[in-house]
Amino acid sequence: MPDLASVIDHTLLKPEATRADVARFVQEGVELGAYSVCVSPNMLPLDLPEGASIKVAAVCGFPSGKHASAIKALEASRAVAQGADEIDMVIDVGAAVEGRFADVEADVRAVREAVPGAVLKVIIESAALTDEQIVAVCEAAVRAEADFVKTSTGFHPTGGATAHAVALMARTVGPNVGVKASGGIRTAEAAREMIAAGATRLGVSGTRALVEGADTNPSGY
């Protein structure tokens, strides 16, 4: 099982976050060895410490997904131009609920075409979908050439990641597309459960507590 910090997107998306908060958060992510720091797009560009290898991720269409595809594409393109290596976009969950999976695919494809060189993660709000809808949305994301499917924004009232959803997503997308578990992952035990279910990346806001918990209790239990 991988070192937990190395698969974490250290995430700060609170609406009240300030630039000073983000600067401190970036420094913390670097110190902890997180894979990336994930921020709101208006916080870009980030002032990274010299020599830091940490990646930069930005959200797109966040958190509702109720944005025109052209707006999502523009937002993603601007974020990449300002230094984002990765984009975490939110689908129109209502389209998935209605069974409009071709529309979901077109939405993802619009962003994919706008940022061809960036890693694209597709947030599906798995807790708001049935298993059948999760499968269909993941298949649409794969057809649109996404790099990851992601469980949750962490803002939806239905909840965040579950091991069941992660396992279903991983089975659906196969080994060539990543699965990011996000939303409600607060302990090393929960993180390891998601990885065991098939997650290859984790979205975590309380990274220090999680990583330090893993360090003091390496089994995770």
From TrEMBL:
Primary enzyme class: lyase
Main location: cytoplasm
GO molecular function terms attached to this record: deoxyribose-phosphate aldolase activity
Superkingdom assignment: Bacteria
Documented EC number(s): 4.1.2.4
Gene3D superfamilies (alphabetical): Aldolase class I
Pathway: Carbohydrate degradation; 2-deoxy-D-ribose 1-phosphate degradation; D-glyceraldehyde 3-phosphate and acetaldehyde from 2-deoxy-alpha-D-ribose 1-phosphate: step 2/2
GO cellular component: cytoplasm
Pfam families per record: DeoC
CDD domains tied to this protein: DeoC
Active site: 88 (proton donor/acceptor), 150 (schiff-base intermediate with acetaldehyde), 180 (proton donor/acceptor)
Family to which this protein belongs: Belongs to the DeoC/FbaB aldolase family. DeoC type 1 subfamily.
Function of the protein: Catalyzes a reversible aldol reaction between acetaldehyde and D-glyceraldehyde 3-phosphate to generate 2-deoxy-D-ribose 5-phosphate.
Listed name of the protein: Deoxyribose-phosphate aldolase
Naturally occurring in which organism (per UniProt): Actinosynnema mirum (strain ATCC 29888 / DSM 43827 / JCM 3225 / NBRC 14064 / NCIMB 13271 / NRRL B-12336 / IMRU 3971 / 101)
